[in-house]
Design a protein that fits this description.
- The chain is of the alpha/beta class.
- The chain has three domains: about 230 residues, no CATH class; about 45 residues, no CATH class; about 120 residues, Rossmann fold (3-Layer(aba) Sandwich), CATH 3.40.50.
- About 45% of the residues lie in helices and about 15% in strands.
- It is built from 21 helices and eleven strands.
- Strands 8-7-6-9-10-11 form a six-stranded mixed β-sheet. A three-stranded mixed β-sheet has the order 1-3-2. It has a two-stranded antiparallel ribbon with strand order 4-5.
- Strand 6, helix 16 and strand 7 form a beta-alpha-beta unit.
- Helix 4 crosses helix 6 and helix 18 packs parallel to helix 19.
- The longest helix is centred in the first third of the chain and has 18 residues.
- The radius of gyration is 26 Å and the shape is globular.
- The two termini are about 45 Å apart.
């Protein structure tokens, strides 16, 4: 199989959507005979061994498994870097099980792994359909693949168990997929901000294939924990609560496609390919060209500055400080709303009228025609019915972040997700 950039992006877009950030992150495909299988660099270059691909990668499902394995590697970075081969085997076993079971349709139930690895011995835990009955690895394999759905085993526990069960002789002949370089700089191989966007996109697009009861549920929970470990509050805000009605220095990327004619088949259309398959040369090809563009966006953040905020202000500023170079202003509210520069908030300059209500927030949102907003509050405030109806009619989406111990906010819950400040600062 010839691996091309367009094919890899197409496979990822089928799972993650046409405007997939993960698909755009892959920017180049190269052949590398020195690479045992495949790897992805921090710049988004996917390199692969053509002999490995020729022998093992026979379908789009196999290619999905190989590429997605490489994408998941950095999400499991706290297990695989600066460790030995045994630790890498454990991490690969979990990654392969995730792909085989959670992405069973996309991977053809992990067909690539069944082709690469033996169904017996230690290699058997790296694939589904193994025969490990009466083997030292039977219990581990059952935790990964058995329908009995035993107790959930973390990757760390899997590593410790393998250290007890395995000998060095077992490890020599097992060739692992992906980049398992143990050099120190691998820990920062792909920047954190890139991993955050990939993790968020994966979390939103986990397929629901009905295979979760029993072993699938345990595996899904483990996978979600790993994905969540790569998410940050920053990404929740950036991805879900941008508003085009307030302009800061944020830029949201998107990809547009246009068709151009050319005597050369750069990215030919299906019609052109059909003509070529019929032995007809089109003369001019209708190439589909993708172009990355940017939209300027902003964040409408409303901060409750009533009496209780002072105690929690350091944590709140700690969350928002990451936006220092991008967020122009923020809205402070008590019984009225005041827009202040973000730099003033970072210096701790706040003013309050003492009381609190959400009516002034609703009025400000409607006046400025915001479609999305973030409200950081202790939750002790009222919202008049007329303002609630106006927000509902306008279909305003609000993320509410609660501090000062309150765990719910009935007045704002109907407009979107409610999270605790402690969750946002983890």
């Amino acid at each position: 199989m010839k691996i091309t950039l367009e094919l890899v992006r197409q496979i990822l877009r089928e799972l993650l959507g046409f405007e997939s950030f993960t698909a755009r992150f892959i920017t180049k495909i190269i052949e590398d005979e020195m690479n045992p299988s495949a790897s992805i660099t921090r710049e988004g270059t996917l390199s692969y061994n053509p002999e490995f691909v020729k022998e093992y990668v026979q379908s789009k499902e196999d290619l999905f498994s190989l590429v997605f394995h490489e994408i998941l590697h950095p999400l499991f970075c706290h297990f695989i870097y600066r460790m030995g081969k045994l630790e890498n085997i454990a991490a690969d076993a979990v990654i392969n099980a995730v792909i085989s079971l959670i992405y069973e349709n996309e991977s053809d139930q992990g067909n690539l792994f069944r082709r690469v690895y033996s169904p017996e011995g230690l290699a058997g835990i790296l694939r589904g359909g193994s025969n490990l009955q009466d083997s030292p690895y039977e219990g581990i394999y059952d935790d990964l693949y058995s329908e009995r759905g035993g107790p959930k085993m973390s990757t760390g526990e899997l590593i410790q168990t393998l250290k007890i069960l395995s000998s060095k002789e077992n490890l020599i002949t097992i060739v692992l997929l992906g980049d398992h370089d143990n050099s120190g700089d691998q820990q920062e191989k792909i920047p954190k901000e890139i991993l955050e966007k990939i993790a968020l996109e994966i979390k939103r697009n986990i397929p629901n294939n009905g295979n979760y009861p029993g072993y699938g549920q345990n595996l899904l929970e483990t996978f979600l924990e790993v994905v969540k470990a790569n998410l940050s509050f920053k990404e929740v805000l950036l991805q879900r609560f941008f508003t085009k009605r307030k302009i800061d220095r944020f830029k949201e990327t998107f990809e547009t496609r246009r068709r151009i004619t050319s005597p050369f088949p750069v990215y030919p259309s299906k019609r052109d390919l059909t003509l070529l398959a019929s032995g007809i040369y089109p003369g001019y090809f209708h190439n589909q060209i993708s172009k990355e563009n940017f939209k300027e966006k902003g964040l409408a953040i409303y901060l409750d500055v009533s009496g209780s905020v002072n105690e929690y202000l350091p944590k709140i500023i700690g969350i928002l400080k990451g936006f220092e170079r991008k967020l122009e202003s923020i809205f402070l509210f008590s019984n009225k709303v005041a827009e202040v520069s973000f730099s003033s908030l970072l210096k701790g300059r706040i003013e309050t009228t003492g009381g609190t209500d959400f009516d002034c927030v609703a009025s400000s949102i409607c006046k400025r025609n915001f479609d999305k907003a973030v409200v950081i509050t202790d939750g002790y405030a009222s919202l008049a019915r007329e303002w609630k109806e106006k927000l509902t009619n306008r279909r305003v989406n609000i993320l509410t972040i609660l501090f000062d111990g309150k765990e719910s906010c009935d007045n704002l819950a109907s407009f979107g997700e409610v999270v605790l400040l402690e969750e946002a600062t983890k």
